[in-house]
Amino acid sequence: FDSFNSARHDKAQALEKRNVLQGKSKDWLEQHKVRLTASSFGKVFLCVYRPSEAMVKSLVANNDLSKVRAIAHGKAEERVAHSIFARNMQKVTKNFTVFDAGLCVNPYLPYLGASPDGKISEPLADPCYEKTGESFYLNTGHSSGYNEQAKGQMAIAGIKWCDFCVFLSDTNEMCVERIPFDDIYSSTQLLPKLKEFYFDYFDYALKYLV
């Protein structure tokens, strides 16, 4: 049993390493489009009633995200944000490092995926992830969806915290909030809702609507 679990984790780690280029990788696009991914977790969690066919198709469609204005801007500034974030954190922890991250998949949640903005290596701490956002809208159920995105990423990656960064590209200012993982919320609210949505609507759309 342990060796079987180890093999599954090895495959998940290999998948992430293959996809550090994220949207530039054909494999990333293929793996991404068959999963409910973190950027849509907020929209799914806030969906109280039966979702429209248009909504489900929009989550399934393999769109070129590079053409989305906000995403294109974020990608253009990502390297600068990584550098400033690392420099600021190195003032506190000398060997603090930010690495590229690929598509994260959890063997126990194979229908979900997450592509964090970066992976953090901080001595004396567990490896964790970085999420760059535009605001501190991190309350459960907020329309921004940042809380569900961050908590969902942590659940998929199996980590205890992540750093949520707000980067102002005009002034190169940055604020960082360290978010702890909420196991109760994730296991009793977020993950059950994502699973239900995937198997009730998303999986059907993959087969019949796209």
TrEMBL record:
Listed InterPro entries: NF-kappa-B_Signaling_Reg, PDDEXK-like_dom_sf, Restrct_endonuc-II-like, YqaJ_viral_recombinase
Residue ranges of domain YqaJ viral recombinase in the record: 27-128
Biological processes, Gene Ontology terms: DNA repair
SUPFAM superfamilies, alphabetized: Restriction endonuclease-like (SSF52980)
Protein known as: YqaJ viral recombinase domain-containing protein
